[in-house]
Amino acid sequence: MKKRLIIILLLPVLLTGCWNYSELNEIAIATGISIDWEDDKYKLTALISNAQKTEGSSKEGEAQITVFEGTGKTMTEALKNIELKLPKELYLKHISIIIIGEELAKKGVGNILDYLIRDPNSPNKFNILISRDTKAGDILKIISPLETFPSQNVSLMLVTSAKFIGSAVEISYNDFIQTYLNQGINPILPSITIKGNEKKGEDQKNIKQSEPDTYLNLSNLAILKNDKLLGFVSERESIGINIINSKIKQTKIHAKCKGEEEDSYIVANLNSLKTSSEITKDLKIKINVKATGYITEANCKIDLTDEKNIIDVQKSMESELKKTIKEALEVVQEYKSDVFGFGSKYYKRYPKEWKKLKDNWDEETFPNLEYEIKTDINLKTKGTSNKTIEEVYKKNES
Q1: What pLDDT was estimated at residue 150?
Q2: What is the separation, in whole angstroms, between the first and last Cα of the chain?
Q3: Please, are residues 39 and 135 in contact by the beta-carbon 8 Å criterion?
Q4: Are the C-beta atoms of 218 and 191 separated by less than 8 Å?
Q5: Average pLDDT of the residues in 83-106
Q6: How distant, in Å, are the alpha carbons of 99, 135, 172, 331 from that of 191?
Q7: 114 and 21 together in one domain
Q8: 358 and 213 in a common domain
Q9: N or C: which end of the chain has fewer CB within 10 A?
Q10: Backbone angles phi, psi at 276, to 5 degrees
């Protein structure tokens, strides 16, 4: 499969041109597609932009998107059955997301990748996600109060999460293919689920409430081996994986306040995260993470003007960051899937030794790799206040 995809990827496909009004009037533009596996068949759901309704001719409360479904023994047949329901030509080049159902992902996504590469009408720039605990087709039907199209809503959620949280990142089709084809590395994908009642989420009433009954929620990273889904990790483990893979520049770290109640924490926003990693010839992993940041919350008794306290906080944050990375490494080793690409690094640096290890890398070598983690955090500022409110209050009382 991988060799076939490599050959196909080398074929240049250049599609250029421009549209006029009549051409736009003859096509149905899909902005998102989902693919499920039901009753031993592919079930495709296409989210179609309703051009006429978005131009202002729609009635109040009428949906500006339409969803069409088609099933088939092959992707081609399922797509054809969607096209039979449309009065216009289905246009796929503007798809921004493809959501793959959890059951299909467990079965394997190799056939989907093969189809998307071969079909000249397939989109070439989009993000891939896996639906979790729900059908992928239902994701595209949930209406958001903030965005017209569910596909656009999901794309923006990915951008926001990658920028401010770090548990989910954008994985483009090209990124996924590149990882899938390389030796010594396995893919990861973000996942998405539905919170609330699915049927209520499809109703326009859902977006007319101050608090929607149903909404989409980015879940944690999905771990794959080759093209098959193995399972999902936790939010903290997802952040750790993304830090190791240098996929995020910013995240937040919580550390318990020393000598105080269990629910007392100090929080720092870490930015400018920089991760370097290497693997030695004797199979030792070295990970070095540096970050700057600032304190965003301190619900404990601490004088932030005292340099010693700042150093103590930095050490606590470094320890928590190290735990996050360690947990990510351990859970992925349990899955026996090298999503970090340590095998790829070993292959490039020690090609002769790699030949002896590659066949059993994921199953035997990777799960037993030893690692050394170093973290270095520099808290440059304490936020806008040097003291906590509690400190100032008690000082004024005395």
Answers
A1: 63
A2: 74
A3: no
A4: yes
A5: 92
A6: 9, 12, 13, 17
A7: yes
A8: no
A9: C
A10: -125, 140
Lowest mean pLDDT among 158-172, 190-204, 342-356: 190-204
User: Does 214 map to a domain?
Assistant: yes
Q: How many domains does the chain have?
A: 2
SS3 384: strand
Residues 186, 268, single domain; the answer is no
How high is the pLDDT of residue 5?
Answer: 52
Q: What percent of the chain has pLDDT over 90?
A: 53
Residue appearing with tokens 């351990």: 330
Quick one: 118 and 260 in the same domain? no
Structure tokens at 45: 């759901």
List of long-range contacts for 197-206, beta carbons under 8 Å, 24+ apart = 198/134, 198/138, 198/141, 198/142, 201/141, 201/142, 201/143, 202/141, 202/142, 202/143, 203/143, 204/61, 204/62, 204/63, 204/143, 206/142, 206/143, 206/145
Check residue 145 and give its pLDDT.
Answer: 57
Q: What are phi and psi of 337, to 5 degrees?
A: -140, 110
- The mean per-residue pLDDT over the stretch 335-345 comes to 98
Where residue 211 falls among pLDDT bands split at 50, 70, 90?
Answer: low
Rounded distance, CA 247 to CA 177, Å?
Answer: 17
| Cα 351 from Cα 358, distance rounded (Å) | 10
Query: What does the pLDDT read at residue 390?
Result: 53
Which residue, of 232, 257, 287, is where some domain finishes?
232
**Final residue belonging to a domain, choices 203, 232, 261:** 232
pTM of the model: 0.84
Structural domain that includes position 278 = 247-398
pLDDT for 393 equals 44
User: Is 238 inside any structural domain?
Assistant: no
220 and 285 fall within a common domain: no
Examine the domain organization and report whether 272 and 152 are in the same domain: no
pLDDT digits (tens, 9 = 90+) for 36-58: 999 999 999 999 876 554 444 44
394 belongs to a structural domain: yes
